[in-house]
Amino acid sequence: MNNFPLLPDQASTYATQVDAIGLALTSLTAFFTAVVFILVTVFAIRYRRGSNVNRKTAGDHNTWVEIAWSLPLVGIALVMFVWNVKPYAEVFNPPPDAEEIFVIGKRWMWHLQHSVNGIRENNELHVPVGRPFKLTLISQDVIHGFYVPDFRIKRDAMPGQYNTVWFTATKPGKHHLFCSEYCGTDHSQMGGWVYVMTPGDYNNWVRSGGTSAAPPKTPEQAGYELFTQLACGNCHKNQDAIRAPTLYNLYGRQRNLQNGKVVTADDSYIRKAIRTPEEVLLQGYNATMPTYKDSLDEEQVHDLIMYIKSLGNGAATNGKTAATAPKQGNKPTSEGEQQVTPVVTGATQANSAPQVDTALSNPTVKPAKPTTLPGNATSTVGGSTTR
Ligand code: HEC
Ligand SMILES: [Cu+2]
Fold first, then answer.
1. pLDDT digit string (tens) for 354-371?
2. Is the pLDDT of residue 29 over 50?
3. Share of the chain above pLDDT 90, in %
4. pLDDT exceeds cutoff 80 at 70
5. How far, in Å, from the CA of 330 to the mean position of ligand 2?
6. Phi and psi dihedrals of 16, rounded to 5?
7. How buried is residue 9: exposed, middle or buried, by Cβ count under 10 Å (0-12/13-18/19+)?
């Protein structure tokens, strides 16, 4: 809209949906405001004191008139409700093929990392058009708000909690990124740009390693290195043991906790299990898992989660009789589709006894590194993890 933009650019699929709703709500409001305004004016003039009109027939109410304006309004309200709920619910539920970007808000900047290729960015985000991206947000200090007006998305980055939001960009160009939650002195400086590129430009950008100097390490690779350095594998083996449960196919599986709750092993659960294991103690195990709250930062915890995710998805085992029995350490061939290999369980009680997992041929101390790590394979194991 030339030089008088009423709205920011529309640069995501979500933006068009949001604007359509905004336009509908504004039009409806304007329409009914006009109707009420006109009627009030007409009646005020017509029935003003001393005017010569018939006041005899005035009843105190008219059922049909009341129904005639109530029902359509209820209808309109319901239509608006359904129409609004759909995108509102959708924006927090990324499609399964969305690429993850991990976002840390901290006073007063945004740290972002592409999970697929490991590229890091500060106050900048590069994405191609037409591809869904899922943001996993967390804060290292106070609440921040990740806000890209051109995408019409805004999501809080909270301390101690993962939030998600997703988008598909539609328009190449440079789009403002803001912090929308007052977070201290330099709050107004906290922001940057989202660069939306054509797929070709984006591929070149990724190939050149983005804007970072060092060859990027994916979170999964960094997580594997951390896992090795911290010797998590001293306790967590390729199969459930008395000492500790296996982390293979943990992701997505249902966990029975000592506090009686049953939870799904998602990002937030694993984060708690690593940082504050006492909050999510598993049934059948002792509280021997060390607390990593003070020694690992949010990025390192996320790296470990990505590594644990790469050890397979156990969602398919939920609801079966051996609900918590581990599957083999093979990576599932495709999403949600496990290779069906016999698992010797026999155990009826979750995690009460070591599970015999015959298919794992390699009883090494550490869970084997997945053979197919995506992205850059040149990074060296044991590199520094401190920044
Ligand atoms: C001293 C042994 C020990 C070490 C070392 C250890 N853990 Fe654990 N871990 C346990 C035990 C025991 C449990 C089960 C009890 C609980 O829930 O805390 C557990 C539970 C977990 C769980 C939840 C598993 C599930 O099945 O729900 C995760 C995730 C986890 N550990 C990750 C790690 C990571 C990552 C490291 C290394 C940074 C690590 N652990 C180091 C003993 C250990
Ligand atoms: Cu902020």
1. 333 333 333 333 444 444
2. yes
3. 65
4. yes
5. 41
6. -65, -40
7. middle
What pLDDT digit, counting tens, does each position of 203-232 carry? Answer: 999 988 766 666 678 899 999 999 999 999
At 214 the pLDDT is 64
The two three-digit tokens of residue 255, written as one number: 């966990």
Ligand nearest to the CA of 225: 1
The CA-CA-CA angle for residues 20, 23, 27, to 5°, reads: 140
Nearest to 214 by CA among 33, 3, 385: 385
Strands, E, within the chain: which ranges? 99-106, 109-114, 120-122, 124-128, 132-139, 144-148, 153-157, 163-168, 173-179, 191-197, 254-256, 262-264
Looking at ligand 1, which atom is closest to the CA of residue 258? 17
Q: Which pLDDT does position 358 carry in this prediction? A: 35
- The answer to whether the CB of 146 falls within 8 A of the CB of 215 is no
Residue 176 CA to ligand 2 center (angstroms) comes to: 14
Q: pTM of whole model > 0.90? A: no
| DSSP secondary structure, 242-253, as one string | SS----TT-BT-
Q: Are 141 and 2 in contact (CB under 8 A)?
A: no
Query: Which ligand 1 atom sits nearest the alpha carbon of residue 250?
Result: 26
> Measured in whole angstroms, how far is the alpha carbon of residue 65 from the centre of its chain?
48
Nearest residue (by CA) to ligand 1, atom 12, is 244
Q: Please report the atom of ligand 1 found closest to the CA of residue 257.
A: 17
**364 CA distance to ligand 1 middle (Å):** 17
Question: Candidates 238, 289, 311, 352: which one to mutate for ligand 1, based on the most atoms within 8 Å of Cβ?
Answer: 289
User: Positive or negative CA dihedral for 264, 267, 270, 276?
Assistant: negative
The per-residue pLDDT for 209 is: 75
Q: What is the pLDDT of residues 310-324, one digit of tens each?
A: 999 888 887 654 434
Q: What are the chain's domains?
A: 1-41+63-216 (2.60.40.420), 219-379 (1.10.760.10)
Q: Which residues contact 301 (CB under 8 A, 6 or more apart)?
A: 271, 274, 275, 292
Residue 273: its pLDDT value, please?
A: 95
Residue with CA closest to ligand 1 atom 5: 232
Q: Give the pLDDT score at 319.
A: 66
Q: Give the CA radius of gyration of the chain.
A: 28
